[in-house]
Amino acid sequence: MGLPLALILLAPAYAQEVRTGSDAFGTSQDDAPGVRRHITPADLPPPSNAENDPEAPDFENMADVVPAPEGKMPDVPDGFAVQVFASGLNQPRVIRTAPNGDIFVAESAGGRVLVFAAASVGAAPAKPEVFAEGLERPFGIAFYPPAEPRFVYVAAANQVVRYPYRAGEPKASGPAQIIIPDIPTERHWTRDLAASRDGQRLFVSIGSASNAAAAMPEKSPEEIKAFEKAHGLGAAWGDEENRAVVRVFDPEGENVRNFATGLRNCSGMTIQPGTESLWCTGNERDHLGANLVPDYLTTVQEGGFYGWPWYYIGGNEDPAHAGERPELKDKAAVPEVLIQAHSSTLQMVFYDAEAFPAEYRGDAFATLHGSWNREERTGYKVIRALMEDGKPTGVYEDFMTGFVLDKDTVWGRPAGIAVTEDGALLVSDDANGTIFRVTAEGSK
C-alpha cells in the first residue's frame, strides 16, 4: 500500500519509515523508540466475534507485574535520558502541572492527591506532600481558573469535588466541596477533568457501564427521539444513561449536560494549547477480535457522536447491535489518531515547551497502559502523535518502551503524563508506583 499524500508531504520533517496497512498492526515485540504506525479505517479487519455470541471466547491474559530488574530503565530515543523522579506511590495515575510549576498526582488506590513542589522537579528522588485524601479512586485534576487558580477540582470515581487553593500550598486550605455528586461507578471508573481556556466550562469524562451495552431495554423510535433530545445524539440508556459521555458543567456544578456521546471510555482529556480544542483518549470495546476495536486520540466536538455502542470508527456496525440504529451509520465521527486495539490508552498531553528538539513542539504524548485481553501483548509504552501545523497526521511513534520482559511478564504500566515547567516529561507507572522523568540531552 502506498503512503497517503499527507504522509508524503511530511517526508522532509519526518524521514522515518511509517508502517501502514497490515504492517501497522503488531505486538510489543515490534516496539522500539522511533517505530511509527499509521492505522486508518480502511485497514480494519472484519469482526471475528460478537459480544452476544455464546461461542465467542472471553480471552484474558493479564500480565504478571514484577519489580524493575536491577538497573533496568525504560527505552527512549537517542538524545534523551530517563531517571526515577519518585517511587513508592500507590497507583499513581493522572499527573498535572499547576500554573506555578507544582506537580499534582492522583494516587488512585491510595485515595489521595499528592503534590510535588516545583523546586523539587529537577531533583530525584522527590518527596510529595498530601494535598487531599479520603477520596474514592481519584483520577482527574483541573485548576480553576486555569491561569490563576483559586480551586483544585478533583474527579473521583463517584463524584467531582473542589478544594480551595492558593499557588504553592502543599495542602488544601479547606474541605472538599461536592460539585457533581452520585456518579455511578460500575465498570469504568476513571473520570478525567479539563477546563476551557476561558474558565467558563469544565468537562468530566464518564465511561460506560458495560463493554457494548448489549442488554439495553428496547425503545420505540419516538422514545429514542425524545431521549436523544435531552441526552444527545446516539446516547445510550438504561444502565448506560449519562455513561460513555463527556459532560460539561459550569464552575459551580450547575447546568450539567452531555457535551459529546458514544465515547466508550474517554480516560484522559486535555485542551490543546493555543486552541479551544478538547481532546480525549478513547478505550474501545473488547471481544470483536485481536485488532478490533482500535483505541484512539480524538478531538471532542460539542454535540459529537463517536459511535458507541452501535458503531465504531465511523460507520462500522457492532455485531451486537446489528440493524438496530441504521440512521446513525453516517453520523458517527472518525477519531483522528487510531491506535492498536486493546492498547488501553490513558492520559495525553501536548508538548508546548522548548527543552525537547524543535520537531517535538506541538506534538501529543499519550500513555498506553497495556492489553490484558489478547494473546500477544500491545501497549505498555508511551507514544508520540505527530502533528503538522496543529493538526493530527494520524501517525504515531513509539517514544518510551521496554516494559515488557516476555510473553507473561511486565515491569511497568504507563498511566499518567505531564510536561514540567522546565520542559521535562513525567510519566507515571501505576503498577510499581514509580514516576519517571525524561529529559533531552543538554537540558537540565
Set down the secondary structure blueprint.
Blueprint: H1 5-9, E1 18-20, E2 36-38, E3 64-65, E4 80-86, E5 92-97, E6 103-107, E7 112-116, E8 129-132, E9 140-144, E10 151-155, E11 160-164, E12 177-180, E13 193-195, E14 202-206, H2 221-231, E15 245-249, E16 257-261, E17 266-271, E18 278-282, E19 295-299, E20 311-312, E21 316-317, E22 337-339, E23 345-350, E24 364-368, E25 381-388, E26 391-400, E27 409-410, E28 414-419, E29 425-429, E30 434-440
Parallel strand pairs: 1-2, 3-27
Antiparallel strand pairs: 2-26, 4-30, 5-6, 6-7, 7-8, 9-10, 10-11, 11-12, 13-14, 14-15, 15-16, 17-18, 18-19, 19-22, 20-21, 23-24, 24-25, 25-26, 28-29, 29-30
Your description of this structure?
The chain is mainly beta. The protein has a single domain, classed as TolB, C-terminal domain (Neuraminidase, 6 Propeller). The protein is built from 2 helices and 30 strands. The protein has helices at 5-9, 221-231, and strands at residues 18-20, 36-38, 64-65, 80-86, 92-97, 103-107, 112-116, 129-132, 140-144, 151-155, 160-164, 177-180, 193-195, 202-206, 245-249, 257-261, 266-271, 278-282, 295-299, 311-312, 316-317, 337-339, 345-350, 364-368, 381-388, 391-400, 409-410, 414-419, 425-429, 434-440. The strands form 8 sheets. A 6-stranded mixed sheet has the order 1-2-26-25-24-23, with no helix packed on it. A hairpin with a 6-residue loop joins β9 and β10 (151-155). The radius of gyration is 21 Å and the shape is globular. The termini are far apart.
Short note summarizing the structure:
The chain contains 2 helices and 30 strands.
